[in-house]
Write a sequence for this structure.
């Protein structure tokens, strides 16, 4: 930060070239500051019934298939109905799909389901219902496997952009834009001056 401000001080005669881009960048970053979201995470585990061991390496590729299944309209519709019946929450299919993301667990035998929303209660409700819907579909889709909803759940508050980070990025980006403008103007002045000397 000291280097940035010392750079700005050395160019204080051209401060308007830097100030305006910095202000624009700050205004834009303000759209993302304190945009809190709550992420509720559940986990579905798929194991072999016979040995209770983790999936074989060739079976782990199925996890991506399970992720695709999660976005199936039937699963979403089932979760929508459950939200309406159990929680009196009415949410569109599009919003529900956008709120749900999935990531494979490193062990290769599990799938994390994350529900994101500004309302923590709604995030939990969506996460639970979508997980249940996927659980029942997977049980019928892969009867040879043991499908479980694990007890590993979490609810975290996630800030998309912190204030200090937004200010730092805005100052750096704004300074870079200001420097570009300054160099372009100085280059243009130099070219005009050089042209006059040649004449």
């Amino acid at each position: 930060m000291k280097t940035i401000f010392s750079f700005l001080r050395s160019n204080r005669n051209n401060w308007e070239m830097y100030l305006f881009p910095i202000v624009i960048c700050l205004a834009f970053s303000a759209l993302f500051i304190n945009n809190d979201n709550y992420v509720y995470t559940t986990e579905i585990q798929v194991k072999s019934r016979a040995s209770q061991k983790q999936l074989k390496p060739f079976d782990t590729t199925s996890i991506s298939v399970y992720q695709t299944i999660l976005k199936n309209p039937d699963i979403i519709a089932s979760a929508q109905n459950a939200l309406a019946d159990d929680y009196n929450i009415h949410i569109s299919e599009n919003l529900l799909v956008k709120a749900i993301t999935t990531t494979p667990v490193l062990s290769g035998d599990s799938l994390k389901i994350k529900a994101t929303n500004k309302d923590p209660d709604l995030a939990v409700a969506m996460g639970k219902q979508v997980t249940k819907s996927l659980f029942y579909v997977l049980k019928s889709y892969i009867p040879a496997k043991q499908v479980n909803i694990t007890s590993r759940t979490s609810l975290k508050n996630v800030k998309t952009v912190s204030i200090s980070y937004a200010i730092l990025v805005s100052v750096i980006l704004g300074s870079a834009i200001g420097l570009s403008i300054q160099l372009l103007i100085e280059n243009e002045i130099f070219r005009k001056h050089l042209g006059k000397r040649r004449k």
Q: What stands out?
A: The chain is about 55% helix and 20% strand. Residues 163-198 form the longest helix (36 residues). Residues 188 and 194 are 10 Å apart (CA to CA).
